């Protein structure tokens, strides 16, 4: 576990979000409620009324015969964001939306994780770094 303090100030979050593209391709898939979803390759699970949604490494899904619903690149915002922070998701979703890039977001205890279409990974990273740069310029220009 990390000992860094969670950040809740939006300006600080944007300036220090430091997006990092994780290696590999990931898929979202839907499994029956009684499916055993554990082990290597599983990134996240969400139990919904309709079944179990899993996010997992594409190769593991393929080997298990699991049909992908969405192929994604995984971007982690490495800043330790507070789960009570307001506006971070809206800010990066807007930046990606303006670049015409869809995103699926998972907020975890320490970081926000953004899944974008695999073919849009480079453009998404560019849009996120532009957002971070603009936030930094605004922060610098507002200092006395």
UniProtKB/TrEMBL annotation:
InterPro entries: ACT-like_dom_sf, CASTOR_ACT_dom, DUF2241. This is Acetyltransferase. GO terms for molecular function: transferase activity. It comes from Caballeronia ptereochthonis. Residues 73-128 form the CASTOR ACT domain. Coiled coil: none annotated. Signal peptide: none annotated. Residues 6-71 form the DUF2241 domain.
């Amino acid at each position: 576990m990390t000992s860094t303090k969670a950040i809740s100030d939006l300006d600080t979050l944007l300036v220090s979000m430091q997006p990092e593209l994780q290696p590999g391709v990931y898929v979202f898939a839907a499994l029956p409620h009684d499916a055993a979803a554990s082990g290597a390759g599983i990134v996240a699970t969400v139990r919904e009324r309709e079944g179990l949604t899993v996010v997992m490494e594409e190769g593991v899904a393929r080997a298990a015969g699991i049909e992908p619903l969405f192929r994604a690149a995984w971007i982690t915002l490495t800043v330790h964001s507070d789960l009570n922070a307001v506006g971070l998701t809206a800010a990066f979703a807007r930046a990606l939306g303006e670049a015409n890039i869809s995103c699926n977001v998972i907020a975890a205890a320490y970081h926000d994780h953004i899944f974008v279409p695999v073919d849009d990974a480079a453009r998404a990273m560019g849009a996120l770094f532009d957002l971070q740069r603009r936030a930094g310029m605004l922060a610098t220009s507002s200092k006395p």
